[in-house]
């Protein structure tokens, strides 16, 4: 059976970044990346709907070791995909990728201190082993988005599409479009479609907080010709990190104040008399769900120009030529886009067993938001919900290299976090109140009440914890190589404190 030191699952933003860190900081280790699809890029290769872009700034979404090279902080999806692909090629990790290799299962054996990974590939089902398993597969299902069961949808004479599966041949120029949803995808799609469609109606069951950010970062533009690109990128990155944290903390601690701030921002960009309180005043507090971004206020511009409209209400049924609401209003449509969310899928849907016992995510605590209690030699990249994904994924990758170097220096073969029992009221790892999280909350690991079992959604705090904190923190148990153990049953372990 083929064996590698580190096996990375996923060749998206997180997986490519992880491979680059491992190559630079643990150069003696063999690294292989398994990618279920046939391309580099993950989310940024999968999503091809009109206007697809980052919903956070690229100075923090980009890699710390390869700063985003442009002034535009909000970037189109194809530019992000090109950035990931060129990073893989520049650092030579593209040669380590095996495409169309989907991980079905991974089984840990304490006797060998190895994972046996079952993979579905073009050659059939195969196995390989690794010493350390690193999941960078995100947390949603790639092959199918979430679409509710809409009454009467079979009677609709037009076309219904989900943004996650946007067809290459879809024509919408001059057509009446209804976009169902109010999240980041809908906020992105509506102004993009409105450029050439006859009209676009954004149909939402309930409002979402929407804030405006400039596409071009003014600080990045000002520093471009004054200091080196690397120093400029560092300044802009930390400026944006601190602003994100300030906004988030104000939202959590002073929600009523921030509701007024968001409302005032919307009022400034819409015509007098626009019903802001119906369409842009959510029932929940800011950051209970992810905040949506409108670059340069493009959504509000489309609403102001009349090329798009927003309707808040419940669907009663589809009709042959549109959608009828419970209020009696009828929205005519030639095309309906169901921007209705994602399906969660933890660890890419792989079954994980440890010495024959299957790991149940909801019965497991997450350690530092990147490992699982009782699961040896396994890390996962789960980014922030209140800031750029890569900020956390980058810290996790650096921490994994620290962990591997520590194990090599002390002759350890196994590391496994040890946690107290999972509290019955423990929060899921992703603690947003978004529909896609609430639907599948039982599919995710849990958080404990305090560090290292709590995910604080705080980048500066995590820098201290993951980049500068102790690897041997007392919660991690280390074991030596199997050959060095005695012949007694079980696993010989040593706690480092």
TrEMBL record:
Keyword Nucleus: no
Entry annotated with the keyword Flavoprotein: yes
InterPro entries, sorted: FAD-binding_MO (IPR051820), FAD/NAD-bd_sf (IPR036188), Flavin_mOase-like (IPR020946)
Cofactor field: FAD
Pfam families (alphabetical): FMO-like
UniProtKB keywords: FAD, Flavoprotein, Monooxygenase, NADP, Oxidoreductase
Domain of life, per lineage: Bacteria
Record SUPFAM superfamilies: FAD/NAD(P)-binding domain (SSF51905)
Single Gene Ontology MF annotation: N,N-dimethylaniline monooxygenase activity
Protein family (similarity comment): Belongs to the FAD-binding monooxygenase family.
Identification of the protein by name: Predicted flavoprotein CzcO associated with the cation diffusion facilitator CzcD
Organismal lineage: Bacteria, Bacillati, Actinomycetota, Actinomycetes, Cryptosporangiales
